[in-house]
Design brief:
binds coenzyme A; globular; single chain; alpha+beta; 12 helices; Peroxisomal Thiolase, Chain A, domain 1
Length: 396
């Protein structure tokens, strides 16, 4: 299956409107030097035309047909936080736009929230769990080190054991999972894919550090991406990047816990066995660097995705950015010359919910009637890795 999905990256023509200024073979991938890891549109059509490959793959489109979200019950406001760390509602709301956030407590689990969100997405899509072919979970804070996908699959009651796995990419997790889902569908083997963004960053926040603890909240949200004829395609284009050089700006590395003595090796050299028990340290972030990185990289990524869809910023009905900071969203919108009324924002209520933030904001906007059938959404995620990317979505 993975092979088929990869081939589709080269061959797909998901939408006749997509173009690179000349007839375009759709999405392509190349991977060396400075552009390693980039997925973009290029003119592979000539190459593709000369190779005998399955035309069946070319006719497959995909679209989001349902969404859903779930939140922990416990709310902590800025004023509440000010009782724990030296901060204030005035500082937090003016610097970030955040007023409160939800935190997982007690018996709540991330898998439980993800399950609820997936159920709601399937309900909206009117798709039975038995018809789900694949579940992708964008999450960096799963309940279990080995991820939550298969457990969510089991709890959803997917009778035919669809493939389920996790994608770990910080706040870009949903965007990468969405594009991966589209590749699986366009590859021809999958039809109904549940794409989940779920994170509980509260588990890795140092609650004594005011620079970071004020920013994050927990949540899960999901969409159902479904195969469709290419004329109805709803994922018009995408643009993905990563840059490991910037990884130092957002980290939660392993830290050693036990101080077991080194043991002598057979040749008298000192070796470290058994390995020391480890755990992840709390989140470290250079907020200023992250701020600059987003303002530098996200607007060109959105523009690139729009170009591949043969659209411009004036065609965008909604700018749906990862909900990290209102000032970041304002800066990106301003660089793209997209007016504030077209920017979807709900972070005042939930803070930065990492991989959940884009589908959570999408779900709220759809259910409130803000986003309507036919609307064009420019979505962009960014975060640890560093990773960032955009997708142009036609709703409904
Ligand atoms: C973290 C962030 C809100 C900090 O805002 P900022 O305006 O850049 O603030 P600074 O870091 O320059 O700090 C300014 C002052 O406020 C203080 N400060 C930091 N956090 C504070 C808080 N919660 N309450 C009160 N004061 C605080 C600092 O100590 C500093 O004090 P000083 O001037 O006496 O040294 C901002 O950089 C940001 O949002 N960055 C992006 C982070 C992000 O979105 N990450 C996730 C991406 S996926």
């Amino acid at each position: 299956m993975a092979g088929a999905a990869f081939i589709s990256l080269w061959l797909n023509v998901p939408n006749p409107k997509q173009s690179c200024g000349k007839p375009c073979g759709g999405f392509s991938r190349w991977g060396s030097g400075a552009t390693a890891g980039r997925v973009a549109c290029s003119s592979f059509s000539d190459q593709a035309a000369s190779q005998p490959r399955s035309l069946r793959l070319l006719s497959q489109g995909c679209k989001i047909v349902g969404c859903g979200s779930a939140l922990p019950t416990f709310t902590i406001s800025n004023d509440d936080l000010a009782k724990y760390v030296d901060t204030s509602d005035e500082w937090i709301s003016s610097r970030t736009g955040i007023r409160k956030r939800r935190i997982i407590t007690g018996k709540e689990t991330l898998n439980g929230l993800a399950l609820e969100a997936a159920h709601k997405a399937l309900e909206m899509a009117k798709v039975d769990p038995a018809d789900v072919d694949l579940i992708l979970v964008g999450s960096s804070t799963p309940d279990d080190l080995f991820g939550g996908g298969p457990q969510i699959q089991n709890a959803l009651g997917c009778k035919h054991n669809p493939v389920a796995y996790d994608i770990r990419a910080g706040c870009s997790g949903f965007m990468l999972a969405l594009v991966s889902a589209a590749c699986h569908i366009r590859g021809g083997g999958f039809n109904n894919v549940v794409v989940i963004g779920a994170d509980a960053i509260s588990r890795f926040v140092n609650w004594d550090r005011r620079e970071t603890c004020i920013l994050f909240g927990d949540a899960a949200a999901a969409v159902l991406l479904q195969g469709c004829p290419s004329e109805e395609d709803g994922l018009l284009s995408f643009d993905l990047h990563s840059d490991g050089d910037g990884s130092r700006h957002i980290t939660a590395p392993l830290s050693l816990r036990d101080t077991a003595d080194d043991v002598a090796g057979r040749n008298e050299s000192r070796i470290n066995f058994p390995p020391k028990r480890t755990e992840y340290s709390t989140l470290n972030m250079n907020g200023n660097e992250v701020f600059k990185f987003v303002c530098r990289q996200v607007p060109p990524s959105v523009e690139s995705a729009l170009r591949k869809a043969d659209l411009s910023t004036s065609d965008v009905d909604w700018l749906l950015l990862h909900q990290a900071n209102q000032r970041i969203m304002d800066a990106v919108a301003s660089r793209l010359e997209i007016p504030p009324e077209k920017v979807i924002s709900n972070l005042a209520n939930y803070g930065n919910t990492s991989a959940a933030s884009i589908p959570l904001a999408l779900d709220e906007a759809v259910r409130s009637g803000k986003i309507k059938a036919g609307d064009t959404i420019a979505a962009a995620g960014f975060g640890a890795g560093l990773t960032w990317g955009s997708a142009i979505i036609r709703w409904g």
